[in-house]
Amino acid sequence: MRHFLSTYGTALAGLAIVIFFAVATPAFATPGNLSIILKETSFLAILALGFALALMTAELDLSIAEVASLAAVITGALVHAGQPVWIAVAAGLGAGLLCGVANGLAVTSLRVPSLIATLGTAAVAKGLAFMITQGVAFVGRWPTGFTGLARGSLLGVPNLVWWLVGVAATIFVFVNWTRAGSHLVATGEAEEAARLAGIRTARMKRLGLGLSGLLAGGTAVLLAASVSSAAPNMAGDHFLYAIAAVLLGMTMFTPGKPNVIGTLVAAFTLKALGNGLILLGAAYYVQDIVLGLIIVGSVALSAAAMRRAAFVKKLSFRT
What we know:
Layout: H1 2-24, H2 31-56, H3 64-80, H4 85-108, H5 114-133, E1 138-139, H6 144-147, E2 153-154, E3 157-158, H7 159-177, H8 179-189, H9 191-196, H10 201-227, E4 229-230, H11 239-249, H12 260-279, H13 284-318
Antiparallel strand pairs: 1-4, 2-3
């Protein structure tokens, strides 16, 4: 029972939250409202999965929100300039990937701690975004070929959810069923041991941070297509939620470790929680208070799980 609760307890708590709001406010469980929650979860989860990939290599990417905003601005500028949609999308993805690669090189080649390197990248990205827009968002009529990436539905399921399913499935297969994915995880869990085993740990760190930037770019493209706007700070509100989703996800399924399924469940739980509080009439600042408590609590639970795992391994080794 203790193992069951430590593995699935947080997920069950999230389910309890959803049930509570469904009972407390009838508007919560309506198809329209659930569709809104799923769409909001898609943006958050894709961004959070990028952060999780960086964290799997024991590195922090604190630039995800600003990189996403820059990628959205670049995409929006090209769309408004009349460039083909595929060029605008490729530019947004490329901008995110370039920032991620820059983070990886700073960490592995220049030996700058990821905390500092990614904060520096965030500052540069923010400055570039404001330089491109001059502080004014790109708004107006956007081509349907672009907005269709995020709007509409297929088989009754919103397009954004399909994008999330595709991205999450790809990352899950990569992390769990490929050699590169196992090397990525090994680098984060025991870097020196991985290096002695022949794993190119520096390359894995660059890969994790590069993928984090790429997913930030993907989030930006979908976000811009959904709201038909591109502003220099449009992804800022997703930053703490993305970190909270990863940390909360580390308290379930594989406690103490970043994981895809846990991140998805946590992202949905956070968005459902925020949506439910709004429907109940809670003040806007209540969400921030709850979010802060979730971040602290999830870190504490993850740290406890890691200490227990280390203790068990130590006992097994002695035995």
